[in-house]
Amino acid sequence: MTVTGDHVRSYPFGTNHGLDLDPTYAQARAEGLVRIEMAYGGPAWLATRYEDVKTVLADLRFSRAETLGKDVPRILPAIVDDPSILSMDPPNHTRLRRLVATAFTARRTEQLRPRIQQIIDELLDDMIAKGSPADLAESLAWPLPIVVICELLGVPVEDRDKFREWTDVSLATDGVDMATIDAARDGLQGYLAELVAKRRVEPTDDLLGQLVVARDEGDRLSEQELILFGITLLVAGHETTANQTGNFVYLLLRQPQLWQKLVDDPDLVPAAIEELSRFTPLGAAGGFARIAKEDIEVGGQLVRKGEAVIVQMGAANRDDAVFERPDEIDFARETNPHIAFGHGVHHCLGAPLARMELQLAVGTLVRRLPGLRLAVPADDVAWRADRLVRGVRALPVAW
Amino acid sequence: MTERWRISVDHEVCIGSAVCAGSLPNRFKLVGDKSVPIEPEIEPDDDVLGAAESCPMEAILVVNAETRAVLAPEL
Description:
Low-confidence stretches of chain B: none
Largest sheet of chain A: 6 strands, mixed
Oligomer: heterodimer
CATH architecture of chain B: 2-Layer Sandwich
Strand order of the largest sheet of chain B: 4-1-5-6
CATH class of chain B: Alpha Beta
Number of domains of chain A: 1
Distance between the termini of chain A: 52 Å
Order of helices and strands of chain B: EHEEEHEE
Radius of gyration of chain A: 21 Å
Largest interface: A-B, 29 and 23 residues
CATH topology of chain B: Alpha-Beta Plaits
Structural class of chain B: alpha+beta
Number of helices of chain A: 15
Helix content of chain A: 40-55%
Order of helices and strands of chain A: EHEEHEHHHEHHHHHHHHEEEEHHEE
Structural class of chain A: alpha+beta
Number of helices of chain B: 2
């Protein structure tokens, strides 16, 4: 069968099973840019090859800002019109990123290491005291990044149940009605507005306090940008790392020989975290459309001005043009230039922090609980459905 | 004499995230997996300080070409 360039596939390709990548991605990668159609917003190009994805992410002519308030390809009916940093191009994007970038550099993150280790140790003390088996997701994977981002931003950790629920609902892709999603987003906005207002009465030197000063004294961002930035940092600061922690431990325990390698040689943990980042398709599907501001060729395919492109980094990270045996987890790769944290101006602000949390969490587990194993058959682990990112509902472990 | 700035990228720490090359394609480009300044010596440009401050690895160093005083990143 010849597949022509105008063959349009429905997207996402299918229902996700755990962390499996739909086989259609391999077909798409063989073809180059492919045409897809999502539930709303008309057709788009989908990039799945490593080089194509990097090209699109690094080229400012593929604009995120152009999608704002527009009927662009997307999963949910609502048109996104919040100018968060995720929907900005330079120079606005740079203006905001600069305000917080120094708080998230590798060097500053390194200073958090002892505190992060302490949080992990306390969480594991609790889990071990309660006895085997336990749910690793609730015992470690979720509370760790929540406590860390709360302390960085200055969000009261006691409010976690509230903002976790709002976060969960606001990142739904199905199974929740739009009114509920809107209410959750309003909940987050009202909550951040409250925290900002408190800082105007009583200034703080946490990240949120610094942003309030940048707003009030430097006029470096608008009130709406301030609130949305707070939400983005809070949500992105815990949701992704929490899910990846569960995903990584699941993958290691599903193939106990991988776990054993780390127990035998904990120095492999940083390489293992890179490899698991490459292997795990965290995003349930590609999203965050970009609009071509002029005609641009990508991997031999002309994308016309005004057309939308969606990238799938999880698929790019399995491109055998770059990674040998891409579907295999191998801690001994000589180079691992994965793009799990993205590429270009939107490259994950919190990448050094996420890396440290994941390395310390897995490193501490292999040291303190070398006999850790899944307490249920791997196939019985339940997965969160209909969310932007993949993760376990619970991860029953024993030791 | 008008002030000149010198840009360098430490390839030992650069991870090729392209935050700099993505935001300032007139100042930085990726060669292989590493960023290099397009012109190592430039006229003062605040955007370049922004790029140096936004680099997750702080791999970009901007100094005064004459005095070698560090302009970014903040130490």
